[in-house]
Amino acid sequence: MELKGLRIKDMQLGLAEGKFTSVDLLNAVYKRIDALDGEIGAFLSLTRESALEAAQSADDRRKKGVSLGPLDGIPVAIKDNICMVGATATCGSKMLEDFYPPYDATVVKKLKKAGAVIVGKTNMDEFAMGSSTENSYYKKTKNPWDTSKVPGGSSGGAAASVAAGMVPISFGSDTGGSIRQPAAFCGTVGLKPTYGRVSRYGLIAYGSSLDQIGPLCPTVEETALAFEAVAGMDRYDATSVHSALQDDFMDYVKSGAKGLKVAIPTEYFGDGLDPEIKASILAAADQLKALGVTVEYVSLPLEEAALSAYYVVASAEASSNLARFDGIRYGYRTDEFDTIDELMIKSRSEGFGEEVKRRIMIGTYALSSGYYDAYYKKAMQYRKTMEAAFDKIFEKYDAVLSPASPVLPFGIGEKSDDPLAMYLADIYTVNINMAGLPALAMPCGVSKDGLPIGMQFIGRKLEEPTLLRLAYDLEEKLDLPKTAQEKEGA
Amino acid sequence: MGYEAVIGLEIHVELDTASKIFCGCPTTFGAAPNTNVCPICMGMPGTLPVLNEDVVKLAVKAGLAMDCDISMTNKTDRKNYFYPDLPKAYQISQFDMPICGKGEIKFDLEGKEKTVGITRIHIEEDPGKMIHTDDGVSLVDYNRSGVALIEIVTEPDIRSSEEAVAFLKTLKSILQYAEISDCKMEQGSLRCDANISIRDHGEEILNTKVEIKNLNSFKEVGKALEKEYKRQSDLTRFGEGHKIKQETRKWDAAKGRTMTMRTKEDAHDYRFFPEPDLPPIHLETAQVKAAQHALPELPDAKRDRFHDAYELTSQEVEVLISEKFIADYFEEVVGYGASPKKVANWVIVEGLRLLKSSEVEEIPVKPSHLAKLIELVEEGTVSVTAAKEVFEALVEHDEDPLDLIDRMGLKQNNSADALGSIVEAVLAEQAKAVEDYHAGRLESVGFLMGQVMKATKGQANPRMAKELVVEKLKACCPD
Lengths: 490, 479
Known about the structure:
The structure holds two protein chains of two kinds.
Chain A lengths: L7 H9 L5 H19 L2 E4 L1 H16 L11 E5 L26 H8 L3 E6 L33 H8 L5 E6 L5 H7 L2 E4 L19 E6 L2 H11 L18 H5 L7 E5 L9 H16 L3 E5 L5 H18 L18 H12 L2 H14 L5 H22 L4 E5 L15 H6 L5 H6 L3 E8 L5 E8 L4 H15 L5 H4 L3
Parallel strand pairs in A: 2-3, 2-4, 7-8, 7-9
Antiparallel strand pairs in A: 1-3, 4-6, 5-6, 5-10, 9-11, 10-11
Chain B lengths: L3 E11 L38 H13 L7 E2 L2 E4 L9 E4 L9 E7 L2 E14 L3 E4 L5 E4 L6 E7 L6 H17 L12 E10 L10 E6 L2 H20 L9 E6 L4 E7 L9 E2 L6 E2 L2 H10 L4 H11 L4 H8 L2 H12 L4 H18 L9 H13 L4 H13 L4 H8 L7 H14 L1 H8 L5 H12 L6 H15 L3
């Protein structure tokens, strides 16, 4: 069988009608990965054995007329910072090259419970620090739309796995844009849920107060299905929110965007934004109007201070979160050492890459005695300001329409020596994490060079359904290619 | 005149919770290394802490027991440092918003009341334990990692090593009374660090202080403070007061001295920041009120009540209230109607003797049995000496003391007729002693008494036996 153009609903139908089995589907997934991933480099490891078992179980259930839900027997991929028993969780780092987590992340447990078949683990910037997936210790992932370009990051492997038509769902993580920016670069949908909506238990932490797991998928419907499967309160995550999705969630998502109100912040469409992206988003805004959505311009400052505040908070938390990698219990350990201090210092110096070390240094400095008030505390106060600014907009509007990235996918190696330029690429995404809001990135056009253009909807806390509803209707109206292969024509 | 010591203590107490502070692992002491562990308390990547609500309850209880202000909103923070026993490389603790603020503990110091201020009480997790073997290998046991602690910090209100020890004893009994911790220092469930500086009497300033660590018993606390006080006094007296550096010193119990462990320059920068994985802790007024209400009677109040209710000496009261379970035992026995004075005597002498050889902290005889035994002694059914034997036997044989006395053949012989004929038989046998008595050697009565007791296997009522011996001696050969 062929995966080409197959949506989850087609898979469900084919499975139900007995046209193919979950094992056939899985074989097709691996066939495609085997054929393409040598070049694309989306995956760091494949879990062929456990996936086959899961697919067989799904087939057995189906024979008995039992279904675990819409994802039963459906292949999915997870980012390599999500823990799963039986597979390494390297986080794209030499530090965790041989690290096999002894437990399943809550998201993994939920996926297994839903019958999903986890096929492998995707490449990422080391410890999710980066915007191009070039910071992976193992390999560079290429953008399936143009293999000379980066797929974005840090969930670049996830975005590429979806854009290359390998899997219909790939779970990534988003600390400052790590789902939305690669989704935009690879022309996929990507949802960063409200902070606390999806359990972080089992997600190897980067910035604990910012991290969220979310899905990347070819379409809004698949994104909604994937989100529904993993959302929910988890007693293993004290920051998870007590709020269940509405019962008619999928119907609501498909209920049409008419009547919703969308705000476009004028400041977000200024000088720093690529004109092609600007034009494409504004054209999409016109399509929204045509769907009966109210679209109005508002003022919402876009400050570089937001970027600084984000890098202070994320790096500070990272400096603490990554301190446990000391070569004592697991992970990389240096060959020669005389003292405990030397063991830890050498293991960390050799095990971490440059960008990770840079952020650990920034974070350690920001938390140091005498600097805490000037940096971390100030940045945390700034978060409140950001939240308040968004809250004000949400008094009148259901969503904010914003670019997901100021630039189109850039060339591999083009920015890797310029960390500041790389940080600037996060200007539209970090403030959403700082405010804890949900945001959905989706394609809105294709550039003249044939690269995908993305944008994002930002919503009130816990209002992912509203974002999905807007995006579902707009996606249909825009009718863009869902994966890179579709762009090339059937 | 010597200098005045200014001492403050930091006490770490393991809370009596069934499971650890952030995961469900058991807290049992003495398990095989690295068996009471899970991915969470091992700090495995991706794991998250979830606060054990019992920890909050016990910390609030501790605060209430020490008259502390309770912070209705408080939060946890990360204390960052690298050490192999700390698997996350940060300890979840409380920095600027501890669960309990200012409080105080009052205690008796040679008849005078002394008050020591409590600065704060905060909750935190215990690290694991490093074991350094003789062949230079270091091992880590993470069983202790994540055990719930409170850290109690006192004001520098303590003025001598004796005061420090008296304070610690009071603190320990409060914690045990309120069932906050078992306070077993030998198992590390109560640990103490001491800060000490000295100054001229009458001065209010705080001079450079030295922190002393590795104090493994109250006795060591006293000794170490004494030694450090002397070291600082000597340096100051010889004009080298400037040599007192702010530092942490380690107490070497074997050598009986403190040694520099780390100076101020090597002090850690812990880079505290709010723990992002845990939301702030909000307490409800009703919850705190209920805890206040549920607080058991504390040693101070119990001491007063014991003095009022029972006619006991101060010494007796102090022994009885030294441990809650002893006081409870005492009152239970008294509750069966026994005389408090007699019960106190039995508990303090016989009860504590049994306790010493017992492995559990419990007087191993049922209170009802002791009450009955005291009653039987009063009635003359059993002699005091025999009763002590019975008391011990009750440890093994949980049965009615009267039945046990019967079975052991220890019933006191109270029949004057029966005893009379035994006495006559003894006098007939011991002609020499009888002769001696009539020759004026009255001490032979004692010898004859001994013979009577021997003949009755100790079951003769001694008072009655003596009366009979004298009576019959006088009767057989009237002067």
